[in-house]
Amino acid sequence: MKTILNLIWFIFGGFALALGYFLAGVVCCALIVTIPWGIASFRIASYALWPFGRTVVDTGRGGAASALGNIIWLLVAGIWIAIGHVATALAMAATIVGIPLAIANLKLIPVSLMPLGKEIVPSRRLFASYTR
């Protein structure tokens, strides 16, 4: 089932969303100072390409620098990206077929708000947020 949902997601917005995150990552890496956000954008792009069957967990390795980086990201880009995810989720939820896609879009909001110190893991891992 997740393969079918991933294919539908890919066609109806996942590719464009992943491409946007990828291009943001390229820009961030080109600016040298923003490389950590560029790497996070690449990570989000891979998650945005195939969101079904995966989830986001905290790595536990994020310290003060990660928290400060997340606050800067939140103020500069995160809030606008989250608003975009909510708007597209509302549009996707207008149809019955789009409801799982809208939920996947909402699943992207936490990692798009605070991307540093996160890891994307398979959902089938039991208690994914507690294992290392």
Shape: globular
Question: Helix- and strand-based class?
Answer: mainly alpha
In total, the number of strands is 2
Largest beta-sheet details: 2 strands, antiparallel
Count of discrete alpha- or pi-helical segments spanning 4 or more residues = 5
Order of helices and strands: HHEHHHE
Distance between the termini: 27 Å
| Percent strand | 5-15%
Low-confidence stretches: none
Q: Biggest sheet, strands in spatial order?
A: 1-2
Structural description of this entry:
The chain is mostly helical and 132 residues long. The protein has helices at 2-30, 35-49, 64-92, 99-107, 109-113; strands spanning 54-58, 118-122. The chain has a two-stranded antiparallel ribbon. It is globular and about 40 Å long. The mean pLDDT is 88.
Could you write a compact summary of the structure shown?
With 132 residues, this protein is mostly helical. The protein contains five helices and two strands; from the N terminus they run H-H-E-H-H-H-E.
Feature tags:
132 residues, mainly alpha, two-stranded antiparallel ribbon, 5 helices, 66% helix, globular
What's the topology here?
Blueprint: H1 2-30, H2 35-49, E1 54-58, H3 64-92, H4 99-107, H5 109-113, E2 118-122
Antiparallel strand pairs: 1-2
Helix pairs in contact: 1-2, 3-4
